[in-house]
Amino acid sequence: MATKLEDLTPEQDALCDRVAEEYIADLTAPRDPAVMPDMGAIERWLDVAYRLYDLPRPKRIEIVGSPFAALKLAGELTGEEHENTDWCGTGDGGWASFYDYFRRIGVLTEEDKEAAEVLALRDFGREAWDSVLLDECAIVIRRPLAIVVDGEGRLHNDRGPCIEWAGGEKDFSWHGVWVPERTIVDPRSYTRAEYEAITNTEERRALCEIAGWDWVAALLDARIVDTWTDVSTSLVYELLSHPGGKVLRKQSPALQNGSQPTYVEPVHEDLSTARAARKWQATDWTPTQCERDPALTYRTEA
Amino acid sequence: MDLYARHGDLVIERRVTPIDGDLTPARDLVLAGQDSGGVHTLRGASAQRRDGRTTLVRVPEPTTLEHAGRHKAIAIEPGDYEIRSLRERGDDGDRVVED
């Protein structure tokens, strides 16, 4: 039976932060590739998970090195394409830590069934990143060997992979934005056509920040056609022309972390002013209409 | 032209006339960013219908439009809105800005 507390002592209050820090630190703790997961912890959680669906835990448990390997194996075993894992593993640390905290301050005990099950999930998450649970086979994904984040906890590594999987696969990210390996390790190898083929504005921004805007401008052979500053927000907009068309380079309003990144987005080639290009992006007006009446105000920009 | 708000790549335009036709009830409506993880979420109850690149949304009570980790939240007053993504040039025409 759970115990009810009306107030936290200063020690219990301080423990909240310590538990959170412990779970967060565990996320990025490097893993020894030679140390295999604790099968006891894995089997204890699998017993719970399969029981929730009135199924026995399958005899076959496969430990794989990455989500990609798990989905591939699931496809081979079922004959069906698998696009998603079960999202069950390390990612459950958020609420596993919640229950763990209440166990540590004595509100929940090992005798509380649900608490015990969540603690089994906690132990599983310390061994397994995720899983794909099939009737005849439980596929368990090992924790990555390395996870690198920036000061705000976003996946980020400016020199290499942000995630190294035990199976050898690697993922790359720039301050939380997924990017191809090449963007991190060889950003200035992009050709103009390859740059123009990037359709995701965050990925484009990442490349501009990594390779440098001057380099990108030179790659595009871009020259400034017009500049406009929104006096109500102080945001600066530049319209640039290049042999392939025109782009609007624009400053973001201050984000949650206070930064104001710059985005570069292709706009209609018939636009001739930055202010009209800004309006063209936000409306379904033609370039001519936007040039004739470029005024556009937002009550709020964020 | 005066528009209600811009939230990253989303433009929020308040309608002067009510939305015609049926709307589907929603809660914590995700308006964009499902694929990239940069999700824009309209908190609480609303009702919505997709119309091309625009989402028609009815907001019954004051709420916020939030973003997963990047843009600051903005206040949304009760009313009817058209919410659409900014556009850019590409793919031999216009396309929505992806983030």
Written account of the structure:
The complex is a heterodimer of chains A (302) and B (99). Chain A is of the alpha+beta class. Helices cover 38% and strands 20% of the residues of chain A. Chain A is built from eleven helices and 13 strands. The longest helix of chain A is centred in the N-terminal third of the chain and has 19 residues, at 10-28. Chain A is elongated and about 75 Å long. The model of chain A has no long low-confidence stretch (mean pLDDT 95). Chain B is an all-beta fold and 99 residues long. In chain B, 0% of the residues lie in helices and 62% in strands. Chain B has no helices and ten strands. In chain B, the strands form two sheets. In chain B, strands 1, 2, 3, 4, 5, 6, 7 and 8 form an eight-stranded antiparallel sheet that branches. In chain B, a hairpin with a 6-residue loop joins strand 6 (63-67) and strand 7 (74-76). Chains A and B meet through strand 12, helix 10 and strand 13 of A and strand 1 and strand 9 of B. Strand 13 of chain A pairs parallel with strand 1 of chain B, so a sheet runs across the interface.
Question: Helix fraction of chain A?
Answer: 25-40%
- Strand percentage of chain A, roughly? 15-25%
The unreliable regions of chain B are none
Question: Which structural class best describes the helix and strand composition of chain B?
Answer: mainly beta
Rg result of chain A: 26 Å
Q: How many DSSP-defined strands of chain B?
A: 10
Determine the oligomeric state from the structure: heterodimer
Q: Layout of SSEs?
A:
The complex is a heterodimer of chains A (302) and B (99).
Chain A: H1 10-28, H2 39-52, E1 60-64, H3 67-78, H4 93-104, H5 113-127, E2 128-133, E3 137-142, E4 146-147, E5 163-164, E6 170-171, E7 173-174, E8 177-178, H6 181-185, H7 192-196, H8 201-211, H9 213-220, E9 223-230, E10 235-242, E11 245-251, E12 262-267, H10 274-282, H11 287-292, E13 297-301
Parallel strand pairs in A: 1-3
Antiparallel strand pairs in A: 2-3, 4-5, 5-6, 7-8, 9-10, 10-11, 11-12
Chain B: E1 2-7, E2 10-14, E3 24-32, E4 40-51, E5 54-59, E6 63-67, E7 74-76, E8 79-85, E9 87-90, E10 93-96
Antiparallel strand pairs in B: 1-2, 2-8, 3-4, 4-5, 4-6, 5-8, 6-7, 9-10
